[in-house]
Specification:
The chain is mostly loops and about 70 residues long. The protein is about 0% helix and about 0% strand.
């Protein structure tokens, strides 16, 4: 008689501990400084020469028709 010893196989599974590194994304804000366009408009000073207009008054004498 052959007595077979039972094979006791103990398999210890090592749990895989996965540490996920979080990706820390720092977004640089774009700071746009807009230069204001300062437009200095030169005022046009127009000197208008006054025109002296002499109106001749016409004296019209109406003769009444009898």
């Amino acid at each position: 008689m052959v007595t077979l010893e039972p094979l006791i196989i103990t398999i210890t599974l090592q749990p895989q501990i996965v540490t996920l590194q979080p990706q820390i994304v720092t977004l640089q804000p774009q700071i746009v400084t807009l230069q204001p366009q300062i437009v200095t408009s030169q005022p046009h000073i127009e000197t208008l020469q006054p025109h002296n207009v002499t109106l001749q008054t016409h004296i019209v004498t109406l003769q009444p028709t009898l």
